[in-house]
Amino acid sequence: MQDRKFFEAKLREYICLRKIVMDNTKEWFASWFDSPFYRELYAHRSGEEARAFILRLIEKLNLLERASVLDVCCGNGRHSEVFNEKNCNVVGIDISEKSLEEAKARNLSNAHFHYADARNFEMHERFDCVVNLFTSFGYFETTEEHIEMLQRIYEHLKDNGVFVFDFFNAEKVRAAGSEDRKVVKDGAEFHITKEITNNRVIKHIRIQKEAARMDFQESVALYSKEQLVEMFEVIGFKNINTYGDYELGSFDLANSDRCIIICSK
After folding, report:
1. Alpha-carbon gap, residue 112 to 70, rounded angstroms
2. Structure confidence by residue, pLDDT tens digits, 40-91
3. pLDDT category, 10, cuts 50, 70, 90?
4. Angle at 146 (CA atoms; ends 142, 149), nearest 5 degrees
5. CB pairs under 8 A, 24+ apart, for 202-211?
6. Which domains does the chain have, with CATH numbers?
7. I want to staple 98 with a disulfide (CB 3.0 to 4.6 A). Which of 8, 34, 53, 198 is the partner?
8. β-strands 188-197, 179-185: how paired?
């Protein structure tokens, strides 16, 4: 209840201001996701797992042919591609120009991709289903920005439309603690250190390739399942259900890898 009052106050404050003060540098996700080294480091991510999850969602949600789907933070379009194969009409948005290039290169017949910031987008269309997948949340500096993102998603849903949200299990991430490792791929050495600080998980990624050295960062807020549900309730989402994995099994605080929320407008 205390968290709910906090989020309600934050939302009122942010709607009054409705302004994000940005500096002249790119935020970490805009620069990192456009880097070719991001693709090298995470090339192992399973397309098969992503495909199986989307197929399971389509069946669970009973999405009909020509259902409209908005993929918020669509990345390179791997999830959008499966919706497209099942004859859904897909719109994907992302802030990474490089990821959008890769998504458009898939040449999907029923999908369109656009550059947009998840905090303030307007597609002039309302959707049967909106998805935000693979921990594409928690990137911003303030709670207000995350609430605004959820508000924009809510406003883009049709009445009784469904929202699917896929985040990590923050408690399991927190319990795993710090990390220090090196990875070598395609002649590049990645030195990765992870720390938990100020209620965020932060990865520092130092890359050495030949004579060049680059530094990147990932920084994601550690919102618990309870905090996420409170935010969803404040926005106005209903029928909120939580799951702990891509098979849509029950959520377990200590053991689940994911915190997946399915709800409706």
Report:
1. 10
2. 888 877 688 899 999 999 999 999 999 999 999 999 999 999 999 999 999 9
3. low
4. 140
5. 205/32, 205/37, 205/41, 207/37
6. 2-17+26-169+224-264 (3.40.50.150), 173-217 (no CATH)
7. 34
8. antiparallel
